[in-house]
Amino acid sequence: MTTPALLPLSGRRIPTLNPGSSPFPHHRATLRLSEKFILLLILSAFITLCFGAFFFLPDSSKHKRFDLGLEDVLIPHIDSNKEGKHLGGHIIHGQGGHDEHRHREEEESLRSKIRADHERALEEAKEKLKKSREELRAEIQTEKNKVAQDLKKKDSKQLPPVPMPKLVGIHDGDPGDPDIKEKRDKIREMMKHAWDSYRQYGWGHNELKPLAKKGHSTNIFGNSQMGATIVDALDTLYIMGLHDEFKDGQQWIEQNLEFNVNAEVSVFEVNIRFIGGLLAAYYLSGQEVFKIKAVQLAEKLLPAFNTPTGIPWAMVNLKSGVGRNWGWASAGSSILAEFGTLHMEFVHLTYLTGDPAYLNKVMHIRKLLQKMDRPNGLYPNYLNPRTGRWGQHHTSVGGLGDSFYEYLLKAWLMSDKTDLEARQLYDDAIEAIERHLIRKSNGGLTFIGEWKNGHLERKMGHLTCFAGGMFALGADGSPGEKAGHYLQLGAEIAHTCHESYDRTVLKLGPEAFKFDSGLEAVAVRQNEKYYILRPEVIETYWYMWRFTHDPKYRQWGWEAAQAIDKYCRVSGGFSGVKDVYSSSPTYDDVQQSFFLAETLKYLYLLFSSDDLLPLDNWVFNTEAHPLPVLHLANSTLSANNVIR
Ligand code: DMJ
Question: Which segments carry the region annotation Disordered (predicted)?
């Protein structure tokens, strides 16, 4: 009997949704609206039938049913002495004619109200049935949008006001020299081509297939469609002054970026690309929406830390919060470069929300690692999150290890050089790396090998080339007056990586290259000859340029830009190539989101003046998203002695 009060007497469907009854209200509401509409029609018809039947029943039954209904549900207050007033459903005239008259009037008014409600519902249902499919669909869509908007408003928790850190150097960065400016304009044009193509063929998908001219995604994003390229590219668009494109991306994010999705994503990738990208877009543009989205997404990553050790799973389902590790990782381990590349973003999340949870998670990881034994002072790539023990003793400054070392240094830089613990960990790690992994080839090339099964593999990955920039960035502040040494080491790595490009047909670097048996800086295996638009070599050129102003770095960057434009550009964007040693390479048909986030950004900065995002004030996360240094005077973290 509660039905009439809840179901569509008024013809409004929204109140029939009960968002609170599901843990995932938005999804539920948007998926079921059309079903609800059909239900509404069926129920309207059913009620009308009952109502009609009611009028055709004999009078006594009418009274009986009506009285029960009214008294039980609608007018329990009419008479407090229920038992004494009714017998077999009939009203006893115990209070005299006046009461009886009043009672009848109330009954009559309720009766006509219900009749009116039913008639209105019937009319509305008839009206709906007169409408075309398209009109009905449009109406349903409008209501869906309204529900989504309402839920969005509910989702946007108020964040505490936080003073903006000092934001220096957000301007044009005009290099002055017309020749350099022309090169920079060319990079900007390449960005525009990459963005416009994605806009046209892959909008809303994570990435683009520039030959097939359609959306693309990989397992790092699960089966989500979260516009990774949009989020990853935002700050590059902003820095390049592509404001219309930036606004377009912002609008998509405002209207479409939702995290209540049943998708198992990589915690690391989502952190560096999405949270890093959103935070950078927030700091550069001041638009609150980016901060809010970053925090909403970060909340979704937190369940990944629910492991016996607090070392997060590699993947988490954004909807259920269930985490797990990659099947290929040694003994169910988490990966050093993944759980060790959260610090910068998580410190900013605590700064912006005032919630210590984020900072605590990453500090817990650091403390745990500090307590562990390290073979030869090196950090193995694998750590089991259940047992807290290392998996295989493989160590790499490339894939699986790389950005862990980068984030130790950057934690120190981002804390305005006050996080001395991070600096110490970085220095110790680099010392061990230099002792055990860095060698010079017979031909005089400095390379960083990998420690595997008790010996040094004389192979270096494209990913490892970022380390040249890292050594240069960490030179200032290194112990024992070794700044010059580390700057030199950075220069040597830059040179080796440039050789890996220069020794190919396409002048683009392979994925991995060897230093063995006469072959140096060259890929040997067929499956290591590809170039997928990666940024690391150009990243190192840029850092080296900033610290030395040696023109060769701009020259090398320009060579790479020209090669990318010549061999990777297609009408639908930019694609990776499968063999950099072949003069007629085949394409891999993927425009990676990091091409827009990193490769083109580093190229643009290489041809800009140094006062655009100066390195004293900004620290770039591992996906090239700039985050401001948190000077303690401005920071809500200042009270936290861990950071201090
Ligand atoms: C990027 O997503 C990041 O730089 C990450 O740290 C590793 N490499 C890819 C691009 O090559």
Answer: 91-115, 146-178
Tally of CA atoms within 13 A in the half-sphere of 322 that contains its CB: 4
Cα 134 from Cα 167, distance rounded (Å): 50
- For atom 6 of ligand 1, the residue with the nearest CA is 622
Whole-number pLDDT of residue 117: 78
Q: What distance in angstroms lies between residue 602's CA and the mean position of ligand 1's atoms? A: 13
Q: Is 611 helix (H, G, I), strand (E, B) or coil?
A: coil
Q: Residue positions in the annotated binding site?
A: 622
269 noted as active-site residue: yes
Distance CA 336, CA 334 (A): 7
Name the residue of 511, 538, 600, 622 whose CB sits within 8 Å of the most ligand 1 atoms, as the mutation to test its pocket: 622
Ligand 1 mean position to 420 CA, how many Å?
Answer: 26
Q: Known catalytic residue: 105?
A: no
Pocket mutation for ligand 1, best pick of 266, 343, 508, 536 (most atoms within 8 Å of C-beta): 536
Please compute the mean of the pLDDT values over residues 421-437 and round it to a whole number: 98
Which tops the pLDDT comparison, 405 or 135? 405
What integer pLDDT is reported at residue 323 of this predicted model?
98
| Catalytic position from the list 232, 299, 402, 427 | 402
Q: What is the pLDDT of residues 383-408, one digit of tens each?
A: 999 999 999 999 999 999 999 999 99
Q: Which residue of the set 117, 264, 511, 623 is catalytic?
A: 511
Cα angle 400-401-407, degrees, rounded to a multiple of 5? 125
Amino acid at 266: S
pLDDT value at residue 457: 97
| Atom 10 in ligand 1: residue holding the nearest Cα | 534
How far does residue 622's CA lie from ligand 1's centre (Å)?
Answer: 6
Question: Does pLDDT of 606 surpass 70?
Answer: yes
Q: Please tell me the least confidently modeled range out of 40-54, 310-324, 567-581.
A: 40-54
What distance in Å separates the CA atoms of residue 153 and residue 147, rounded to the nearest whole number?
Answer: 10
The total of other beta-carbon atoms located within 10 Å of residue 557's CB is 25
- Both tokens of 621, joined, read 């996360």
CA neighbor of 110 nearest in space, from 265, 35, 226, 5: 5
For 416, residues 6+ apart whose C-beta sits below 8 A from its C-beta are: 629, 630, 631, 632
CA torsion through residues 206, 210, 212, 213, sign: positive
Average pLDDT of the chain is 85
Ligand 1 atom nearest residue 399's Cα: 7
Catalytic residue (one of 264, 299, 492, 536): 536
pLDDT digits (tens, 9 = 90+) for 561-573: 999 999 999 999 9
Is residue 14 pLDDT above 60, yes or no?
A: no
By CB atoms closer than 10 A (0-12, 13-18, 19+), residue 444 is: exposed
